[in-house]
Amino acid sequence: MTAENFSTRPDQVPDSEFISQLQEQLKVAWEQLPDTEKTSIAVMLLEDLEERERHLFREAFDTKWPITSESVPATFALIKITPDDLAQIGLDEEEIMFFDESRLQEMSTEIRDHYVVQGFWEELKYHTNHFLGELRK
User: Fold this and answer.
1) CB 135, CB 126: distance < 8 Å
2) Which of 26, 46, 81, 89 has its Cβ near the most Cβ atoms within 10 Å?
3) Domain limits at 12?
4) pLDDT tens-digit map of 83-131
5) Which residue intervals of 67-119 are DSSP H helices?
6) Same domain, 57 and 87
């Protein structure tokens, strides 16, 4: 079965053999494209994704190519956890002593990466929806 003679009906799900063959054909065709065409086709395909599919794509993309501190644009401020920050969350001096500079730096990087990958986008959605809700009142 090839892509040309496969009819898609809502009740017809392609079998795994067909999907594997189609994937292989796509990979071969993809390799023949110039880089600029690959980019425009990728964008076109992403635009065609439904919201649920976009969410699944973003999860898969973020898993495959996670954002790290080294790849984050300079617009995100560097986070530097200090002993004073630990005191602010209720740790006493004895507990704070366990956190050397290396551990504080590691925590700072992990918090920043987590914020950029997850927290930022969730916050952006929340505040955008909140603002639009206020406009509709």
Assistant:
1) no
2) 81
3) 1-48
4) 999 999 999 999 999 999 999 988 988 888 777 777 777 888 888 888 8
5) 83-88, 93-96, 101-114
6) yes
